Amino acid sequence: MKPQRLVIVGGVAGGASAAARARRLCESCEITILERGPHVSFANCGLPYFVGGEIVRQDDLLLQTPESLRARFNLDVRVRSEVTAIDRARREVHVRELPSGREYDLPYDALVLSTGAGPLLPPIPGIERAGHFTVHTVPDVERIRTWIRDCKACRAVIVGGGFIGLEMAEQLVRHGGLSVQLVQSLPQVMGPLDPEMAAWLHRELEAHGVELFLGSPVAAFETPAPGESARASVVVLADGRRLPADTVVLSLGVRPRVQLARDAGLEIGSRGGIRVSEHLQTSDPHIWAVGDAIEVRDAITGAWSLMALAGPANRQGRIVADNLFGRASAYRGSWGTAILRVFDLTAGCTGANEKTLRAAGISYQALHLHPGSHAGYYPGAEPIALKILFAPDTGRLLGAQAVGRDGVDKRLDVLATALQAGMTVDDVAGLELAYAPPFGSAKDPVNLVGMAAQNVRTGDVTTAQWSDVPSYVPPGSMILDVRRREEREKGFIPGSVSIPLDELRGRLAELPKDREILVSCQTGQRAYFACRLLTQHGFRVRNLSGAWRTWDAATRGGRKP
C-alpha cells in the first residue's frame, strides 16, 4: 500500500533524493523531512574546497534550501528538528525543535532513516581542545576559516590520511599558505589503494611541503610545554615525538549514526550500520534506511560493508522511493568507486584491493602498467600508474586503481563500468573507446591493461610483483634490466644486470639457463618483449609487473608518475 504520510529523518544526499523522487511518483503524499542541522541539502564533498577558497561563497555549497524544496516539490522541510525516538507500534516519531526545545509527535505510514555518519573521535586525551576541528558540516568549515584567520594560524597538523585529510592538506598548503604535517596511524595514506599505488601520493605530498608521519598513532593532544609555541595543542605521537600545532584537523573517519535505530529495536549489523534488505528495508517493514548509516553488500566479496560515499546514497534514496510507490527496485551492492585530487595528481580506485581479496580468500592476479594519457606523439601526454586485479581462472575483473596527472578519471570510470557489468579482461581488451590524439591512443590504456592480462592468462608471460624482487637477488636467480643505459643511470634495482633490449639477441650467451631471470625495464613493455624472446630461446623468465617505475615508487616513495 502506498504511503500517504512519508517522514524522512535526515536530508543531504540520501534523504533529499528520496523525498524528491517520492514527490515525482506521488503528488498527493504528505512528505516531511526532519533535519537536525541548519542545512537540509549541502555538498559535503565540497567542504575542503570552501576552506581553501576554491569554492568562494558558502551559498554555493547549499544545493537546496527548505524554501526551494517547498516551491519545487511541495516538501515540508523542517531544519533544526531532531528526531529523538521512534514509536514503531504507533508509527510516530518524537521530534524536538532546536534551539527552542519544543517537542511533538509526528505520525508516519512509512519512515526513511537517512541519519548519516558522524566524525570518528577516539578517546585520545585532549582531543576536544580548542583549535581542533572536524570537516563534516558547513558550520564546521566556517569555524576552521574563522580560527585560522583570527589566531593567524600558520602550522596545521592533520590527523588522518583518508580522502578528507588529503584534500585538506592540499587546500591548507596551496590556498591557505599553511605549513602542514599529516599524521597517519597506518603506513600509507588513502587506505583503499594498495601500498605501491599510495606511494605516488606520498611523493606528491612531500614535493609540496607536506611532512608525513606514517605509521604514527597519536597518543595525546597536550598543552604546550615551556618553550613550545602552539595556538591549538601539541600533537604527541606514540613514539614520543611532539608536533606543535596552531590548528588541528581531525580526519579519522566516520561512524554510522545508528542510535535512533538501535533504540527503536531495529537490527544493527556486525559492521555497526543499520541492516537492510536489498530493497533497503530495515527489520521493520514500515521503515527504510539509506546512506552512510546502513550496511551494504560489497559487490566483489559479498561481505557486509560500510560505504560513506555520496553517489551510492543518492541512488539509494531513489531506490527507496521506487519501492515505496510500487516500483520494485533493488540495490545491487557497492563497488567503492572513488577519486580525489592531491595537488597535481589524481588518484582513484574501484572494486577490491589486494588486502580485501586476501581477507576474503579470493584468488587474484595483479598487473601494473604505465601507459600514456593520450598518444605519445601528441604534446602533453602523461603516464598513468594503472593497476588491475583479476580472477586467474575466469579473467573476471575484481578491482582497479589509477594515479596520474591526466586521464585518470576517464579510465577509472570505464573500468568501474566494466567491473559492474561483470566483464573479463578479454572484454576490457576488446572495448571500442573514443580515440583522437589529444584524448587517447588507438590502444587505450584500458585496452592495454586488458591485453596485458590476456598475455598472462594465455601463458605468454609470467609476472612477478615489486614485492618479489628480493627473492631474485643472486645467486638463486638473476635480475635483468633491458632499459637503455641513460635510463639506468637515473636509478636501477640493486644487483640487476644491464643488457639493453636491442642488444639482447646478440648477448644471449651471457644469460644463465639454470636460473630464473626476472626481467625489468622502465614500465613493463620492453620487459615483455624481452620475455617473449628469451622464452623462445629456452630461458626461464618472469616479467616484473610495472617494472622500474612501480618498484621505485613502492620502495623509495616514487618519482612523478
What does this entry look like structurally?
The strands form nine sheets. The chain has a five-stranded parallel β-sheet. A five-stranded parallel β-sheet has the order 11-18-12-13-14, with helices on one face. The C terminus is likely disordered. It is globular and about 90 Å long. The N and C termini lie far apart (56 Å). It is an alpha/beta fold and 561 residues long. It has 15 helices and 32 strands. The chain has four domains: 183 residues, FAD/NAD(P)-binding domain; 121 residues, FAD/NAD(P)-binding domain, CATH 3.50.50.60; 114 residues, 3-Layer(bba) Sandwich (FAD/NAD(P)-binding domain); 94 residues, Rhodanese-like domain (Oxidized Rhodanese, domain 1), CATH 3.40.250.10. Helix 1 runs parallel beside helix 8 and helix 6 crosses helix 15.
Secondary-structure map with pairings?
Elements lengths: L4 E5 L2 H14 L4 E6 L5 E2 L4 H6 L9 E3 L1 H8 L2 E4 L1 E7 L4 E6 L5 E5 L2 E4 L3 E3 L12 E2 L4 H13 L4 E5 L3 H12 L4 E6 L10 H13 L3 E4 L3 E5 L10 E5 L4 E4 L1 E4 L3 E3 L2 H5 L23 E3 L6 E2 L6 E2 L4 H15 L13 E5 L2 E7 L2 H7 L4 E5 L14 E7 L6 E8 L3 H13 L4 H5 L15 H13 L5 E2 L13 E4 L3 H4 L8 E2 L18 E4 L4 H11 L5 E4 L2 H10 L5
Parallel strand pairs: 1-2, 1-9, 2-5, 9-20, 11-18, 12-13, 12-18, 13-14, 28-32, 29-30, 29-31, 31-32
Antiparallel strand pairs: 3-4, 6-7, 7-8, 10-19, 15-16, 16-17, 21-22, 23-24, 24-27, 25-26, 26-27
